[in-house]
Amino acid sequence: MSDDCCGTGRDVEAGPEKLWQVRQLQLAALAAALLLTGWAVGHAGLPAVALAAELAAVLAGAATFVPGTLRNLAHGRIGVGTLMTIAAIGAVALGQIAEAALLAALFSIAEGLEDYAVNRTRRGLRALLSLVPPTASVLRSGREIAVAPDQLVIGDVLVVRPGERAATDGVIAAGRTSLDLSAITGESVPVEAGPGDAVHAGAINAGSAIEVTVAAATADSSLARIVHIVEEAQERKGAGQRLADRIARPLVPAIMVLAAVVAGVGALLGDAVLWSQRALVVLVAASPCALAIAVPLTVVAAIGAASRQGALVKGGAALEELGRIGVVALDKTGTLTGNSPAVIETVTGPGVTADQALRIAAALETRSEHPLARAILTAAGGESGEDPVPADDIVAITGHGLAGHIGEVTVRLGKPGWIPAGPFADDVARLQSDGATVVLVERGGTVLAAVAVRDELRPEAAEAVRLLHRLGLDTAMLTGDNRRTAEALAARAGITTVRAELLPEDKARLLAGLSGGRPVAMVGDGVNDAPALATADVGIAMGAMGTDVAIETADVALMGEDLRHLPHLFAHARRARRIMVQNITLSLALIAALVPLAALGVLGLATVVFIHELAEVLVILNAIRAGRTAAPPGPGRGARATAAGGHRPSGNTGAGSRSATSSR
């Protein structure tokens, strides 16, 4: 919370769950009751009792902000609470006790609503931690026992039965099931999982019982990390919030000077009491409390709502930039595609079988970490079930391919151009036009085969791009793949701007040209795309659940892998930014309108207090709207089948001169 708002320095990390439990609202209600009592008793002809009731009302209302104001003044901090304290004391000194009580009561109501709004949002975020079950079943010394989650240690074996939640992160050791991650990633369709697959804290076992090896203590789980990162992010200030702060901070002493000038000029004119009263009204009229809370409350509410939908927005600056984005650049592999490439076709020359060609390719790829290597190794091992024998003297030629020796013969595997396509030129063109990445296999200077590998487009990619376009956002694909393959996939996704054959640093360099002067967002995997994520106005990491690198690199991390979260996130950020602008505009307009009316005596203290605090309540209620968001569309059953580890194509082999064998 900005100290400029109320100057009370209160702690908002924990608070009451019910509106009527808020201390400020309780004291405001007491002050209002006392004020009404004083008014009734005064009309009954008991002025002394009425005065006592009104003074008690002032004390009850002022108790919510005067103590904090005095503490801040002791530390040299001046805030809006300072203005309200001066105004209340001055009103009492001038005999306007009822007006002072009204000021204190209404200001306390605004204070209480502000606290309640922040606490409600933060409770909603921390409610994620309630996804961790109160006890966990663990196997120790051959027995199954129940322990508290914080007693789990790395290496323990959890037993997670159907309908139960995982207490912390781990890896499935035994059993197969489906996991419901909707509360974490925002994706509604369960994910199929088996031995070796990761299980995240809070995941619901929607299938059969499984045994999970603990990989992290509960305090270090992905769920705890999400809450920690978002809570930190909520404290970061965005440009709009900094603008509000820059206006509010000098405005407070300026208002005090203005009030003193009004009182001084009035004294020179011969009516010191009247102008002193007007000076107090000016103090209240120009109070920037609504301005100071206009953006922070919106940021807290919007970031909390986004986190509950599986999007970690790292601070107000990132949220505001998201709302300004005009161009979205997307990486291909792992973002628009499922990051599970497979060999779809092997075209061979005379006297060479697809199995032979794949075994040569696999011999060069045995120690490679490239996604294409995994596809080729899988396809090569699919026929014989034997691991390929690594080639000798393997050398990686950056951006081109691999070279080595099998026996005394030189073998190469690489992209067309580095290895002449020769008789396979037409096949290379055909396969690339179909969206496949093609590598050529060469032995002893002779091209033996063309191997086509394709990473399938995510089923929801075209819909997500269409929704982005509906929001008025331009899209572009950035990839290191060849142009023909990139353009084929981009066409299927509905993207017309394509930049292909790029190195990671090239992506970062091209962003400025793509943006056309508009803010640009880069969507990638958070690792290979780190330079571009850092260069873009907003970097967005996809599928970041459990990945520290992705979360730390990007400004926004989407925990799930459904691309349709992207347009939902941009729409949410735009709405939040509109609310910020509305709040700032209302706050500044209020000050501009009330100050001259107060200085000229058109409005009295009671009227100004009522209008000012009503406007603050409106700002609070408007900010709370940023915390309301509809659930993003979930992936269809068919869409999830591939992403969840369902059937994927694998390489086929075959024999015959110029044979073309497909894996599907």
Could you describe the 3D structure shown?
It is a single chain. With 664 residues, the chain is α+β, with helices and mostly antiparallel strands. It has four domains: 200 residues, no CATH class; 88 residues, Calcium-transporting ATPase, cytoplasmic transduction domain A (Distorted Sandwich), CATH 2.70.150.10; 131 residues, HAD superfamily/HAD-like (Rossmann fold), CATH 3.40.50; 130 residues, Calcium-transporting ATPase, cytoplasmic domain N (3-Layer(aba) Sandwich), CATH 3.40.1110.10. 50% of the residues lie in helices and 16% in strands. The strands form four sheets. A seven-stranded mixed beta sheet has the order 10-22-21-20-11-18-19, with helices on both faces. Strand 14 and strand 15 form a beta hairpin. Helix 10 packs antiparallel against helix 22. The longest helix has 35 residues. It is elongated and about 115 Å long. The two termini are 58 Å apart. The N terminus and C terminus are likely disordered.
